[in-house]
Design brief:
about 140 residues; 2,3-Dihydroxybiphenyl 1,2-Dioxygenase, domain 1; 4-stranded mixed beta sheet
Length: about 140
């Protein structure tokens, strides 16, 4: 069983996933554009370079995403109805990933020890995606 997050963008999915790859490392499992779609999908020529699907393993989960394309899926509505929770390997890893994620974005809550026994912080990255970085202090890892 796994928990995967799927993000939708309006033309900047490739840029966003290159950024996430720079933060978390690893290699893409799959990257396809709307140019890879069957001709009967009727994708407009100007949308063929948009990402149809991308997946990036992060720890035991997979971060997935796509761009919107006219008539294929619902229209993009950016909002604050989700966050991605990331559990780093150490406090140092938490600080490093948090610093990269908040570059060009906004810090909501600085990394700090919390009453529930974690080292925790929240930010919104430059793409408008909300992140929670949570390192359980009782579970020293890596």
């Amino acid at each position: 069983m796994s928990l995967n997050t799927y993000l939708t963008f309006d033309g900047d999915c490739a840029e966003a996933f290159d950024f996430y790859k720079s933060v978390f490392g690893g290699e893409f499992m799959m990257v396809s554009t709307f140019a890879d779609a069957p001709p009967d999908m009727g994708v407009k020529d100007e949308e063929k370079d948009r990402i149809m699907h991308v997946s990036l393993p992060v720890g035991g989960s997979v971060l997935m995403g796509s761009d919107t394309a006219g008539g294929h899926g619902p229209a993009l509505a950016k909002g604050n109805n989700f966050s991605i929770a990331f559990t780093p390997a150490s406090k140092e890893d938490a600080d490093a990933k948090f610093a990269k994620l908040k570059e060009g974005g906004a810090e909501t809550m600085a990394m700090q020890e919390t009453f529930w026994g974690s080292y925790f912080g929240m930010c919104t990255d430059r793409f408008g995606v909300q992140w929670m970085v949570n390192f359980p202090l009782g579970e020293r890892q890596g």
